[in-house]
UniProtKB/TrEMBL annotation:
Gene Ontology process terms (BP): copper ion homeostasis
Biased composition annotated in UniProt, kind: Low complexity: 335-352
GO cellular component, as recorded: membrane
Record key words, sorted: Coiled coil
Gene source species: Oerskovia turbata
Residues forming coiled coils: 34-61
Protein name (database record): Copper transporter
A Pfam family assignment: MctB
Length: 352
């Protein structure tokens, strides 16, 4: 049993330590501790101000660099796609300002956007396979070379054909099959025609929508989103392949890549990267300027993944000098091109 004297000694020790602390804190240690804390606060304030000044300088330099790139853009792309016709396919809801910025660079390069469609949600929805199968059955006889293909391959080939197929004897005109395919896909709600198309396109630009915030992958909801995304990307890959196969050149362009999106999938797959060109970062001027340059490079048989992400082959596409466009129908002297080109035309499609 602890006796009363032990409690007395303990209380005295506590009060004695408290008294010593008060005396030292108010006396010889007061100045030293105060000076030390004041010095530390002042040092932290100076470091904060220096970092703020560095950040302001960096932001100003970045703004100047961006202004320079924007101003130099028209000169960089000038004539790189002279007289080429571009069909644009939105792979989802692409930001309107972003599309207009890309379109401006295409026009600066001498190209023109002759058609613009947007994929509907059913195009990549796993729950809408029956809808796609029905549509694919309706267009199979309008698309050459797809009798043995799967549903999504048929639809990809059909859309690419509708954008690029031209009459052999009248290259300025779309085939009747191309027009009918577009109509059937639109009726099935698989695509939305944003800009009606009157002439066949030379190249196809696939625009990937900006990424959306998704639940964490380690949750049930996140895992489900990842599976749906992977399913959708696998179908988008088929469309990119069909666009390249059935046109003179195709390009996939989008925002700075995130894991599992279309650009990341192509970049990570050696076989896909050897055939399909990509441009990332189209939310900013460098990416927008790279779009026409990359299309020109693909027309010149140069494939690459252009951007700042890991795995990109180059920051900017190489400069390519393309030959002038010749739309003279086969067997028609060049001097008569554009006058009698549509006379007696047939609707035989050609593949890019």
């Amino acid at each position: 049993m602890i006796d009363f004297r032990y409690h007395i000694v303990s209380l005295i020790s506590v009060f004695l330590a408290l008294a010593v602390g008060i005396i030292l804190g108010a006396g010889p240690l007061q100045g030293a501790i105060g000076d030390q804390l004041t010095g530390q606060v002042e040092q932290l304030r100076l470091e904060r101000n220096e970092l703020r000044d560095q950040l302001d300088a960096t932001n100003l330099e970045a703004a100047d660099n961006k202004e320079f790139i924007v101003a130099a853009g028209p000169q960089l792309v000038d004539g790189s796609l002279q007289d080429r016709r571009v069909a644009v396919v939105d792979l989802g809801e692409v930001d309107g300002d972003r599309y207009e910025a890309v379109r401006e660079q295409l026009e600066n390069a001498g190209a023109s956007v002759v058609g613009h469609v947007r994929l509907g949600a059913d195009w990549t929805a796993e729950t809408q396979q029956d809808v796609r199968k029905t549509a694919a059955t309706e267009v199979t006889n309008l698309v050459p070379g797809v009798d043995e293909a799967g549903t999504d391959e048929k639809l990809a080939a059909a859309l690419a054909t509708s954008l690029t197929a031209k009459q052999l004897t009248a290259p300025e005109a779309r085939t009747s099959e191309a027009v009918l395919i577009e109509q059937k896909l639109a009726d099935a709600k698989l695509i939305e025609v944003v800009q009606p198309q009157d002439v066949p396109a030379d190249v196809v630009l696939l625009l990937e929508p900006q990424p959306k915030a998704v639940p964490a992958a380690d949750t049930t909801e996140g895992a489900s989103v990842d599976e749906a995304k992977a399913y959708a990307v696998s179908i988008e890959v088929l469309l990119a392949q069909a666009a390249q196969a059935r046109s003179e050149g195709a390009l996939v362009a989008g925002s700075t890549p995130v894991p599992g999106d279309l650009i990341s999938t192509i970049t990570a797959d050696g076989d896909l990267a050897a055939v399909l060109s990509t441009v990332s970062g189209i939310e900013d001027a460098p990416g927008q300027i790279s779009v026409p340059l990359a299309l020109a490079a693909r027309l010149g048989d140069q494939v690459g993944q252009y951007g700042f992400e890991e795995g990109a082959t180059a920051v900017i596409p190489p400069a390519v000098q393309l030959p002038p466009v010749d739309r003279t129908p086969p067997g028609v002297p060049e001097s008569t091109s554009g006058t009698d080109a549509t006379a007696g035309s047939t609707d035989t499609p050609t593949e890019g």
